[in-house]
Specification:
- It contains six helices and eleven strands.
- It has about 325 residues and is of the alpha+beta class.
- The strands form two sheets. An eight-stranded antiparallel β-barrel has the order 4-5-6-7-8-9-10-11. A three-stranded antiparallel beta sheet has the order 2-1-3, with no helix packed on it.
- The longest helix has about 60 residues.
- It starts with a helix and ends with a strand.
Length: about 325
């Protein structure tokens, strides 16, 4: 009888318990403590078989998750509260947040200057860049100065060359002009010779006017002479008109050889009487026409003269200096 009562109680207890377990739709993992639905067979955290070891729960239900929450990644708080696997000593611990090392960044910025300015390397780079720019500007200025100096010297050399060329041209024209002039057209000069009388030398000083009619290679002209013969107690007056003919070498310095032939008169005083004696002259001379410029010519010459007045004859060397135009 007692056995029948015990069996009946067991059957009644099974009838009371089994429907509750069958109706339970939640199960709790005994290891991690997380609640899952009855459809979850294995705990995703630690691999526990929930069908055999899970604890059924009726009153606790997991909150329904929206689609956005299901698709959104877990936050740091959720990650920190998530249970770690049992191989991590079965302890709950939050996942540490990544540490931001702000000290290194501040140290890098403040190691050179606490006011936040450029570092030592940056200052060196800036200095190198400034020096490079200064050297480039200096080289550019030096090159510009060199070009300007060469241009100035080139202009100066060109001016000097132009002046030299002009000077040479003027000299060439002057030489051509002087060469074309040859003998001067007119000249004034003075001549010295002697007409001896007895023991008296009788020096004669005369002035001459020369006119050259032909003055290239051949020389032909007229010479008018008026002079005084100096004696001890009187002075005679001498007048001559001479034809001059000869040859010359036309140039700035023109040497020439000419012959002279002319007629004139000699006026003398004997006591209280004055008489004029006819006078003839023959001679030759050599000289040189020196043109100092195209308008002035100096002509020195030396010669020999033979004079006679019908009764007396005179032989004398002559010296003459004239200025031609």
């Amino acid at each position: 009888m007692r056995c029948l009562v015990s069996g009946a109680m067991i059957v009644l207890l099974c009838l009371l318990v089994l429907p509750g377990e069958a109706l339970a739709d939640l199960v709790k993992c005994p290891v991690c403590g997380q609640v899952f639905g009855r459809e979850v067979k294995t705990c995703p955290n630690d691999g526990t078989n929930l069908e055999l070891l899970g604890k059924p729960i009726e009153s606790e239900k997991p909150a329904a998750q929206t689609k956005a929450e299901e698709t959104s990644p877990p936050t740091d708080d959720a990650a920190s509260s998530k249970y770690k696997r049992h191989d991590q000593n079965g302890e709950r611990r939050a996942t540490p947040r990544p540490r931001v090392d702000t000290y290194s960044d501040r140290h890098a910025r403040l190691v050179g200057d606490r006011r936040g300015g450029p570092t030592e390397e940056e200052r060196e780079d800036l200095g190198e860049k400034a020096r490079a720019e200064y050297e480039a500007k200096d080289r550019s200025a030096a090159e510009q100065f060199r070009r300007q100096r060469e241009q100035a010297w080139g202009l100066r050399r060109q001016e000097q060359e132009d002046a030299s060329a002009l000077r040479r041209e003027l000299l060439a024209r002057r030489d051509e002009l002087l060469a074309s002039l040859a003998a001067p057209l007119t000249s004034l000069g003075t001549r010295l010779w002697w007409m001896q009388e007895g023991q008296k030398p009788g020096a004669v000083l005369s002035g001459e006017l020369d006119v050259n009619l032909v003055r290239n290679v051949f020389r032909l002209g007229l010479s008018t002479s008026l002079g005084i013969r100096f004696l001890e107690n009187r002075g005679d007056i001498l007048f001559l008109e001479t034809l001059v003919f000869g040859v010359q070498l036309p140039w700035r310095f023109s040497p020439f050889v000419v012959g002279r032939a002319g007629l004139g008169g000699l006026s003398t005083e004997l006591g209280q009487e004055s008489m004029v004696n006819p006078l003839g002259m023959f001679g030759a001379e050599v000289g040189l026409d020196v043109w100092t410029n195209p308008w002035l010519c100096l002509t020195p010459n030396l010669g020999y003269s033979f004079l006679l007045d019908g009764e007396d004859m005179w032989h004398s060397f002559t010296a003459k200096l004239s200025v031609g135009f």
